[in-house]
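Quick entry between incubations.
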Amino acid sequence: MADLLLTLSGVHTHIGPYHILHGVDFAVPDGEVTMLLGRNGAGKTTTLRSIMGLWTPTAGQIRFAGQDIAAMATPEIARLGIAYVPETMGIFTQLTVRENLLLATGPAGFKPHKLAEVLALFPVIELKFNQQAGGLSGGQKQMLAIARAIIEDRRLLVIDEPTKGLAPGVIVQLIEGFQRLKAARTTILLVEQNFEMARALGDSVAVMEDGCIVHRGAMADLAADTALQEHLLGLSLGALQ
Amino acid sequence: MKPVAPYLLLPVIMLLAFPLMSGPSWIALTVAGLAMGMMLFLMASGLALVFGLMDVLNFAHGGFITLGAYIAVSVLAPLTGWVNAGSWELNLMARAAAMLAAAIVSGAAGLAFEAIVIRRVYGAHLQQVLITVGGLIVADQLIVAIWGTQPLPLQKPAVLRGSFQLGGAAIETYRMAAVVLGLLVYAGMHFILNRTRIGLVVRAGVENREMVEALGYRITRLFVGVFVAGSALAGLGGAMWAQYQETVTPAIGAEMMILVFIVVIIGGLGSIGGCFTGALLVGLTANYIGFLAPKLALGSNIALMVLILLWRPRGLFPVGGR
Ligand SMILES: Nc1ncnc2c1ncn2[C@@H]1O[C@H](COP(=O)(O)OP(=O)(O)O)[C@@H](O)[C@H]1O
Ligand SMILES: [Mg+2]
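Done. Structure below.
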């Protein structure tokens, strides 16, 4: 078992008066892809936002690389080496594609080999490099959002439903992209509803329900057990396809 | 992807006014309108960025305009000799000293105001309105206590007092100077916003503050810088407007704020390009209508705002999710 890069223990999060997370426990091993699954409204996005400090947990611990980050401010958390791709992608539509990427680089700007790597992964970005990002299609925006997350070396990528609303062809491209990241042993925490994606990428999996983790294990075991899928997710993941 | 039509409004308004008056009047009013627009831009740009970046409604912004105007008076009073001297160098130094002092003092006041008041009311619009209006009342009273209620005269520098001929129209030198200075500040802001990392972060922050923080930028610190810069620019605009009017009253900020709000709303709440276009539109309209139908001058700018909002409900250059 690899070292744990990120560990959540007993995390409770309130949004205004609402108690959304009720003691979330799971961990992300270094160098692996961890899937976070669950029905709509289970609390996956809230969990990712709590990790990023966009909601501040009211109780519990979030340890990243040995440090408790639960009470830290978002910019400080990001500076520890965590890249976040929100469900809404967070593309700056008024900026160019290049400027969107540049924002995620260090003070020295683009590192040529990193830029080349990202453009090789998503060639369409090079075609649109100097255009306004607002003009990209949904799939292109998602590729840009992921490209922005990897334009510098990060220790952890936190990605929220990247295939949401995308056409099947684009999803295939995204899966290929993620597979290359996985092959390079990038540590990823990935929320996903698409079963192809989950099965193709996940090493381990955590399943949420009503603000709690209800299952943890190897992705392969869940993928093989349709009854368990049915029980945890309401319908077989395979049936989604 | 940037809309083109809003930019066309400027030439359209200029062309509309052209047949309504003599050629020389049109030239003179156009220059005056652009000059006024440049000064409005200085006063409005800070407000627009502060709103765009942090969603903060600062009704006390006019206080920085008034403060800048009075600082200019106080700095120029002992420099009367320089102001009246027929020498470019001395005139320029007096003016530079007045404008620099206005910007610095207003900027410092902005720094204090942000730390004492604004920081406590992030995200709460009603409280922002109440406390910044309160702050404005306090600031106005302080200004009256220091400088009194009587209008104070302010002389233009000697070398900028005359006029020169352009297309048969007499153009006041001071107006051209205001246009040039406004253009320089606009070019400077444009450069910072579009060619530097800080500018990039500001533009991104106006659109999606949360994502900028998730990329590791401490936006609250950046906001303090923008607030101070916006206050300093308002002070600078106030100092220029005071010299343009040749007199300062405690109401100077409040009077300009009506136009400044119209400019910011027309521009699209938070967009600098929109703010610039909006300021020139308001400056031109105020001058054309002030000449054609003086009684309608203020009403005409409100009408301009209403028409633009009917056409583009979120302003000329709406920003991000607003
Ligand atoms: N800003 C918010 N205000 C109030 N409730 C929210 C907010 N965001 C999410 N919730 C609630 O929290 C629960 C979990 O939402 P979310 O984390 O978005 O679920 P998921 O990402 O798993 O679909 C849902 O019941 C949702 O209605
Ligand atoms: Mg979600």
